[in-house]
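Bench log, entry 3. Co-assembly request; chain sequences pasted below exactly as received.
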Amino acid sequence: MQKHMRKLLTIVAEAALESHLVRDLDQLGAKGYTISDARGKGRHGVRSSAWDASSNIRIEVVCEPDLADVIAGHLQAHYYDDYAMITYLTDVAVLRPDKF
Amino acid sequence: MIALDPVIMFFLLGLVAGLLRSELRLPTAVYELVSMLLLLAIGLKGGVELAKQPLSYLLPQVFAVLALGLALPLLAYPVLRHVGRLMRADAASIAAHYGSVSVGTYAVAAAWFTTQQISFEAHMPLLLAVMEIPAILVGIVLARGLRGQLRVRNTAHEVFLGKGIVLLIGGLLIGWAAGPEGVVSIKPLFFDLFKGILALFLLEMGLITATQFGSLRQHGVFLVLFGIGMPLVSSVIGTWLGWTLGLSIGGTAILATLAASASYIAVPAAMRISVPEANPTLSLAASLGVTFPFNILLGIPVYYACAVWAHAVLGT
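Structure output for the full assembly:
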């Protein structure tokens, strides 16, 4: 079985940003993404997801390394200063390279 | 004594459980359902009454309340900026919270008035919906300046399509279109269960309020004083406006309560997108940690007494 290497870009951010992040991802050319609710703790304190203002989401995007860099750079430039957000990149293997 | 009302006891239960770090937690989906039911119930109730009122009677009140929503943040901003020495964005954001309204506070007031058999104009939910919006726009202008880049589409989307406004206006329209006979079939869920739903909502609000106390300790005395002083001042303006508009004593007290309440759903969401540099911890600590509990525990009876006094002194 042949495997192909791609990047997994994981974004954890305030739920308030969801519609904006999704729009950015579409515009930057991501072919797909997965969003889940998340909670945890960081520099902005405990994000308990008890209600809207303390909710987090986790967005996962599997894509070409170049695009992952573009997206990460865009997020850093536009959101890092003012919002609770982290991003990280991981190497992943996929079976259907044309999908990502 | 308002604290004897069982719904208030649910709030206190949540507050104490939160402060003692109990495991208690309303599932997110339940909290969302409960707040949706509250908004729809309030909207429906108001909508049914709207059908009975002529537009010429309602319009002056709508415009007066719009003006109130514009004026309150302009009053709060200089105090926050110069007395509180807050950054411009923070002052603007908190000012917007205090110009807008809290549906939870309105629900508690409406429930309390009903228990005390104090009548008030039933179209108050319309004024509640109208007063949610203008302060948000004032807050954005205060933070950005008039010439600043206003991302109009984003802002309009946040302001008019936030779930609170959609449900409140939607409920009003459904109630208005269906009329008193039409809503009979959905009455058991929305009207009969109202206080039970409110109790669950307040339980969660108590838990959320408890989480704000930590940030209050960090940000100090000014926010506490502002969180109590501002609603008192706003309620006096609301009382005066209610009397001027010729509302009943109950209606005047409800308008005073609306003026005194501070938003914690619509405004935080809009500010987060439109004024991202404002620290949401500050505004929520003030509106949820101080003003919301103050209003529902002490404020509402005080505003009612104030309305009674105003109508006695100024004449009805």
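The interface with chain A takes residues 25-26, 28, 31, 204, 207-208, 211, 215, 264-265, 268-269, 272-273, 276-277, 280-281, 284 of chain B (CB under 8 Å). Chain B has a mean pLDDT of 91.
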